[in-house]
Design goal:
The protein has 161 residues and is an alpha+beta fold. It contains two helices and four strands. The protein binds zinc ion.
Length: 161
């Protein structure tokens, strides 16, 4: 907490003499003797002052936390935006890569995923891997279907696709 809020005002305590005198007049200040009345007025002024300071300190604290929360909300919102953009960029880059590396756009086969009516897959060459040299991807939903083995290493007749 910042030092600002630590400027602390002690709650004024009524002197015992005043308490006793008030009790004797059933807590009715107008019935106090003049000298005790003076004491009461002094205490009352201090108490009111303290109460006012307390209220403004509470208000400042609340304002501080409200501002802080708002700032945090904005930070979170920006972070969410950045993450979404990164995700979209990744998906976009993948799409470009896939497109550039598509060898066959018309492999006729049903998409393996429920809820997708895709009937055409595309064959994408995966240059970096000797064994999994290509994969099939649904043209409709874009999801991966199957890795294809390199025909240079495997007999294509064994491929059930
Ligand atoms: Zn699909």
């Amino acid at each position: 907490m910042t030092g600002d809020y630590r400027r602390f005002y002690k709650k004024p305590v009524a002197p015992v003499r005043l308490k006793n005198a008030l009790e004797a007049v059933s807590w009715n200040p107008s019935r106090l003797d003049p000298d005790v009345k003076k004491l009461y007025n002094k205490w009352n002024r201090e108490y009111n002052k303290w109460e006012k300071k307390e209220a403004s300190s509470r208000a400042r604290k609340q304002e501080f936390w409200e501002k802080w929360e708002k700032k945090e909300d904005i930070k979170r919102e920006i972070q969410r935006g950045i993450e979404l953009e990164e995700k979209e960029t990744k998906a976009y880059n993948k799409l470009i890569w896939d497109t550039n590396n598509t060898e066959d756009w018309g492999v006729e086969y049903d998409c393996r995923y429920d809820g997708c009516d895709g009937k055409i897959l595309r064959k994408v060459i995966n240059h970096h891997k000797a064994h999994h040299y290509a994969f099939l991807e649904c043209s409709l939903c874009g999801r991966h279907q199957k890795w294809l083995k390199n025909p240079e290493f495997y007999d294509e007749d064994n491929d059930d696709w």
